[in-house]
């Protein structure tokens, strides 16, 4: 999206940087300017100056400076377009969208209005639950028992959803409003249409985006009921794969402490904040994604993942590694903290103290070591087969890293472990990557005709040296199966140049075309579908991640608008190639196109399940649970294969 410079200048002329900064920083008048504690680094004496005459802020301690747009980008973690839209909304200005059709502009405006309305509804529910907490001794005792003070409860907006099926009816007189269902607060029974509250008799954790808007909730039971934790569903404002619990509250502490601490649960975040680690955030009941990591790197250059020390924690760390690899540049630090199996971060600090926990954080395993450990897990490096297996495991991990010194150093270390010089390993992987995939088990250099003798060998009765004369000097006449035939020499003909071939479109190509042509289809996909698309190998995965970001920021857009927004992006060449030529036309009945996309995704899911099953078979000897997981995946495959369309 291209925003005219003239509009940006007019916008900055209308906003007051003192008001914008003052929402996040306590400012006091000091001469012609305003002063406060810098939000970008820890300090006790104010060195952060905001000038109303120059509409500029500057910190004399750390050097941070900029205008109102820059402040929202640096402090609130917004993108440029998001910051401009936020300021424009506050001033009543309309961001120019000349490159969009009236229908697209109307749809985007409706989407923004819907998001604003849903966050208002969620905030109203959160306010009611905060009041209920004050009137619930049982809920207060739960938090006290976990060591949570009233100050921390207020900071994180903790609340309590009382018992009863329709508790929110006292908060929302129009309990039948569709907004309550769309926001995830109310569940509608599909059979009889009856409505009831999603969260009942649970302590509540509001989930906020980086602007501080309430976008969802997590609820925990006070007893032993199941499920222990319950999250808001995916909604137009809440996407688990892109949001982190506690990030809004942790921003300042992350900057002051120099790193973000990623944990697995709401209570981990709250308890850690109570005990001096206010820089903690948590994933929302899902594996850490590249979007999570990307968002964290807006606020810091160091991320430490802290997981429980059991097998589940190790698996969660492995998924976090996959999410972190694309962003592990030479200037960033990613580490993994593994606590003893009997502890989570909360229990560890209570047992051993904040100093011991801080020491463990400092000694956390760097990404490079964890990558090497993950690659050689289950491999016997004392045997050639084990070393080859290790290198096979390492290749996709290493390939996901951005080019730089870290990537090249790891290539050398992997080569040393695999007893291959780094140059040979790089050459081997480059050859494998360039090789066109063929049928399983087929040799890449197999001759195109099954009745030809192997190259470099002579058929019966030939003279030595004849086979080197031409590319295909021999044919075997007779039956197609070779019975009763004989070899004969063909005429000497100059080799013909290969004809240009149109690349065969893969499933990821076709799925990308459908989504670039009909972006609204993205809104209908499940979390599993989104994860599948994001995890596609480069360059497709990056395109799907970008497309999701555009949907989250602007709503569904036409290909014409997306093409302009892609200018200069790494995915531009792929998208333009896919959307060029007659094969790119995806017009037709939308119901049929949706079914076509569903079929493609089902086939891609089946392929992913097959790969996971193969890995489970290999791990069955060491992991007793592997076969059980294999059977679960087999049942999932059966359902997909019986209901899914084959795709192409």
From TrEMBL:
Q: Where is the Toprim domain?
A: 258-340
What keywords were assigned to this record? Answer: DNA replication, DNA-binding, DNA-directed RNA polymerase, Magnesium, Metal-binding, Nucleotidyltransferase, Primosome, Transcription, Transferase, Zinc, Zinc-finger
Where on this chain are zinc fingers (CHC2-type) annotated?
A: 38-62
**InterPro entries per the UniProt record, alphabetical:** DNA_helicase_N/primase_C (IPR016136), DNA_primase_core_N_sf (IPR037068), DNA_primase_DnaB-bd (IPR019475), DNA_primase_DnaG (IPR006295), DNA_primase_Znf_CHC2 (IPR036977), DnaG_bac (IPR030846), DNAG_N (IPR013264), DnaG_primase (IPR050219)
Composition skew (Polar residues), residue ranges:
91-100
| PROSITE patterns xrefs | TOPRIM
> One short Pfam family name for this protein?
Toprim_2
SUPFAM superfamilies in UniProt:
DNA primase core (SSF56731), Zinc beta-ribbon (SSF57783)
Q: How is the cofactor bound?
A: Binds 1 zinc ion per monomer.
Q: Which CDD domains match?
A: TOPRIM_DnaG_primases
Spans annotated as Disordered: 91-113, 432-504
Task: Name the coenzymes or cofactors required.
Answer: Zn(2+)
Q: Which domain of life is it from?
A: Bacteria
EC number(s) from the headed UniProt entry: 2.7.7.101
Q: Which reaction does it catalyse?
A: ssDNA + n NTP = ssDNA/pppN(pN)n-1 hybrid + (n-1) diphosphate
Q: Where are the compositionally biased (Low complexity) regions?
A: 436-449
Which HAMAP family did the record assign?
A: DNA_primase_DnaG (MF_00974)
Its family remark reads: Belongs to the DnaG primase family.
Its domain comment says: Contains an N-terminal zinc-binding domain, a central core domain that contains the primase activity, and a C-terminal DnaB-binding domain.
Subunit info here reads: Monomer. Interacts with DnaB.
Could you tell me what this protein does?
RNA polymerase that catalyzes the synthesis of short RNA molecules used as primers for DNA polymerase during DNA replication.
- Protein name, as recorded: DNA primase
State the gene name recorded for this protein: dnaG
